[in-house]
Each structure stands twice: as structure tokens, then as C-alpha cells.
Specification:
The protein is an alpha+beta fold. The chain has 2 domains: 63 residues; 333 residues, Neuraminidase. The strands form 9 sheets. Strands 1, 28, 29, 30 and 31 form a 5-stranded antiparallel beta sheet that branches. Strands 2-3-6-7 form a 4-stranded antiparallel beta sheet, with no helix packed on it. Helix 2 packs antiparallel against helix 3. The longest helix has 39 residues. It starts with a helix and ends with a strand. The relative contact order is 0.13. It binds 2-acetamido-2-deoxy-beta-D-glucopyranose. It holds the Pfam family Kelch_KLHDC2_KLHL20_DRC7.
Length: 449
């Protein structure tokens, strides 16, 4: 322990050790030079080992800190991070291009993490939500926007709904959630009056999941329990489709393993007449954080990821630790045939978009998200583009830019305006890594073609 501490400054212990050696040497003038050399070599070897051990320990803790910064607002300095954030020349190239240039030949790097060219949009800031939110959920019913749950930070989760009124641009109400309801990674859908909430993560950090499911009557603000999901899921794709609540994909009990199961439950007016969930055709690819959207007779599942952070084994607070994850831009569709069809993928892989979408004029609009990690720094990269999926042609386009890159945004559309609130934003225009959890609300006039 002491040696490791000393080795923090390799010059000092070396000096004091040699000084000690000399003193020792002076008092014992009869020692043979051979034993002096042996002692010297032993000390040097020991010191060398200590330095190596310390470097190893330092690199581990740097890595550990960097994991934390992917999730929450922290000012902890991180070595690689600094390198990536330092603009190194003044040309107009995207900063990711600069990193790639600096760190190695660009042609060996996948470019899916980089910003895509997109028109700049004018955004207008609206009143912020009462609390900041990461991994919140939302449902829009006419001019009313219900914003659910989420993390304020890793050690605090919300257990209420904030309500925004698009017609007056004000946060107007707060509704308490049932104590047994999940706080993040839930499944959510609505029929225009009742909101259905399914499973999800119960608690802070990377806590365990619950199967508990509920409905909320937004007219009376009354909650009712629904039959629990057959097995818990984190952030499953969830949608109300042809009178049944469909729940599929998500992560399994350990928060990381993708589930492919697909269940449905007949629901009407916030209740079910069925005793249990029904098995449906499994989704081709499992995993959490996808957009799930029903349009007419078709059900779309868009983007998402396989793998996620999971609780550190044995951690009493379920401390989040990073695991391998792959983000994708796949689009799957179910229609009357009840067979999954594969449609053109998103312009880039995109995850954390469960509530980041709206349907406008026969198009799906998606805002922000997370994409592939940076191939060199391995940091999580946020998305700042707005995507349009044309439901008539099944084609994607990149139509605009958000005020900053952000994930887990909650998106709405009212009276020609595209709104988003909350999420975790980037470190700045030159740094697409996640940092601050925000409650900011923005809107822009939407003009689709
Ligand atoms: C949607 O279509 C209508 C009718 O063509 C048009 O007036 C409106 O501007 C469109 N909305 C957007 C957001 O582009």
C-alpha cells in the first residue's frame, strides 16, 4: 500500500530509497559490494513492480470513471476524453473526423458514430420540466403531454408524472405513480384516454425489474392494476394495436440479455378481460430502447440495441457497470399476415428512442438517441439529427438538427410545432458524449415534404 502510494511519483521514492541505501551503506562499511548490488537490484525490481501495479490500477480507475461519465453529469477528468475533446485543427471538418485523423487512418473506422449532414433548424425554448429526466417516458393525448418517471441522476428516480399543456405551453399538473410501478425502462402505450404501463426497472442505478403493470385513466387520474407480464423486461417495445397491448423484445432479468418473446393482452378502457398474456410471434431481434409505433394496420419496431449496462455482481446498490452493447437501425414490421417483415434501416443505428417519435402527415419523425460507440475511444455517442420515415415510400431521410445531441428525448407534435423535452444531452457541439441530464423543453415549426 505504502509502496503503491510512493510510486505515484516514481522520482521521489527512488531518491529517498537511494538516500536510505547510502546511509545504510555508510554505517556498514564492511558490507561486500556484491551484496550491495543484490540489494540494489532487489529494491529496483520491487519498485518497478510497484510502478507497474500502480499504472495498472490507475488505468482501471480511469476506465471506471469514464464509465460513470457516460451516464451522469460528472466533471471527473478523463485522459482519453481530453484527447478526444481537444480541437486540434481549425478546419471545418466534423470533430469525429479530427479524432479519426489523429488516432489512425480514417478508412479503417466505421463512420456510423458520426453526425450526418442535416439542415439547421430554428428552435425556441419553452418552460423546462419541473425535474430533469433521463430514461423518462411520455404519452401525448391531444394537447396534453404526460411525462413519466425517469432518473434525475443514477441515484435518484422519479415516481410521478409531469403534465405539459401544448396549447398554453405550461407545465400544469403532477400525478403520483403507484408505489409498485417501475421508474424507468418501462413499456408504455395509450388509446387516447387510458395509458398502459408495463414492467420495467424498479429503482435506482441498475436495479432489478418488476412485472407489475398498470393502466391510468387520464380523465379521472385513477390507476388500475393489469395482469403482470409473464416475465420482467427492461424497455420492451410496447404498443396498442388492434385492441391488444403488444409487448416484445427488451432486456431480460439481468438487464443485458436481449429477449425475443412477444406477448399481447386484450385491453379496453384500462382493463382486461383476459387472465393472462398471450404468446405472439417472437420478434427477429430482441433488446431494449426501441421505438414501437402502430399506424393503421401495421406495427413498426425501429432501432434499439442488444445489451445494456448491468448491476455489478454483489453490489448492494446495484451499481451500474458497462457491458458490451450493439446499437442498430433495423426496422421490423408486422401486418395482417402476422409475420415480421424487414424494412429499410434508419440512416444510422439509433437507440434510446422509445418516446422520441411522433406521427405527422403519414411520416414517422424521430428525434435524437444514441448511436454506435466511437470506434477508437469506445465512448457512447449521442445523436442530434431528426429523421423522417415516409410511410408511403418506406424511405428514410435526415430532415433537421436538434439544438444539441440528446438521448431519451420525449417528443410531441401540436399545431404545426415539433416539441421535445428531457433526456441526457451532449458535452457540447464538439463532443457527442453524454453529459448533463436535462428537463429543457424546445419546439420548432415543422415543415415536411
Ligand atoms: C401536413 O399536410 C398538410 C396538408 O398537405 C399541410 O398543410 C401541412 O403543412 C403538413 N404538415 C407539416 C408539418 O408539414
Amino acid at each position: 500500500m505504502a509502496l503503491i502510494f510512493q510510486a505515484n511519483n516514481p522520482k521521489k521514492p527512488m531518491a529517498s530509497l537511494t538516500a536510505g541505501f547510502h546511509r545504510h551503506n555508510n554505517h556498514r562499511s564492511h558490507s561486500s559490494s556484491a551484496s550491495k548490488i543484490i540489494i540494489f537490484f532487489c529494491l529496483s525490481a520491487f519498485l518497478g513492480l510497484a510502478i507497474i501495479a500502480n499504472l495498472f490500477r490507475a488505468s482501471l480507475s480511469t476506465h471506471y470513471l469514464s464509465i460513470a461519465t457516460n451516464w451522469v453529469d460528472t466533471n471527473a477528468p478523463v485522459l482519453i476524453l481530453k484527447l478526444a475533446a481537444t480541437p486540434h485543427n481549425s478546419n471545418n471538418k466534423g470533430k469525429d473526423g479530427k479524432i479519426a485523423q489523429r488516432m489512425g487512418p480514417q478508412r479503417f473506422l466505421s463512420a456510423t458514430f458520426a453526425d450526418l449532414p442535416a439542415p439547421e433548424w430554428q428552435w425556441e425554448q419553452m418552460p423546462s420540466a419541473p425535474v430533469p429526466r433521463l430514461d423518462g417516458y411520455s404519452i401525448q393525448i391531444k394537447n396534453t403531454f404526460y411525462v413519466f418517471a425517469g432518473y434525475a441522476h443514477l441515484d435518484h428516480v422519479h415516481s410521478h408524472i409531469d403534465v405539459f399543456d401544448f396549447s398554453i405551453n405550461k407545465w400544469v399538473d403532477q400525478i403520483k405513480m403507484p408505489n409498485e410501478m417501475a421508474h424507468s425502462h418501462l413499456g408504455i402505450a395509450s388509446d387516447g384516454r387510458y395509458i398502459y404501463i408495463v414492467s420495467g426497472q424498479y429503482g435506482t442505478q441498475c436495479s432489478g425489474p418488476t412485472t407489475a403493470s398498470f393502466s391510468l385513466d387520464t380523465a379521472t387520474k385513477k390507476w388500475k392494476p393489469l395482469p403482470p407480464l409473464p416475465a420482467p423486461r427492461y424497455a420492451p417495445a410496447t404498443q396498442l394495436w388492434k385492441g391488444r397491448l403488444h409487448v416484445m423484445g427488451g432486456s431480460k432479468e439481468n438487464r443485458h440479455t436481449p429477449g425475443r418473446d412477444h406477448w399481447s393482452l386484450a385491453v379496453k378502457d384500462g382493463e382486461t378481460l383476459e387472465q393472462q398474456w398471450r404468446d405472439e410471434v417472437p420478434i427477429p431481434r430482441g433488446g431494449p430502447h426501441r421505438a414501437c409505433i402502430a399506424v393503421n394496420d401495421r406495427l413498426f419496431v425501429i432501432g434499439g440495441q442488444e445489451g445494456d449496462f448491468m448491476a455489478k455482481p454483489g453490489s448492494p446498490i446495484f451499481k451500474c457497470s458497462r457491458r458490451h452493447e450493439v446499437v442498430y437501425g433495423d426496422v421490423y414490421m408486422l401486418d395482417d399476415e402476422m409475420k415480421w417483415k424487414i424494412l429499410p434501416p434508419m440512416p444510422k443505428p439509433d437507440s434510446h428512442i422509445e418516446c422520441a417519435w411522433v406521427i405527422v402527415n403519414n411520416s414517422i419523425i424521430i428525434t435524437g438517441g444514441t448511436t454506435e460507440k466511437h470506434p477508437v475511444t469506445k465512448r457512447m455517442m449521442l445523436v442530434g439529427e431528426v429523421f423522417q420515415f415516409h410511410l408511403d415510400t418506406m424511405k428514410w431521410s435526415v430532415i433537421g438538427k436538434l439544438p444539441y445531441r440528446i438521448k431519451t428525448t420525449l417528443t410531441g407534435f401540436w399545431d404545426g410545432w415539433l416539441y421535445f423535452t428531457s433526456g441526457q444531452r451532449d458535452r457540447g457541439p464538439d463532443n457527442p458524449q453524454p453529459k448533463k441530464v436535462v428537463g429543457e423543453t424546445w419546439r420548432t415549426k415543422l415543415h415536411l415534404s
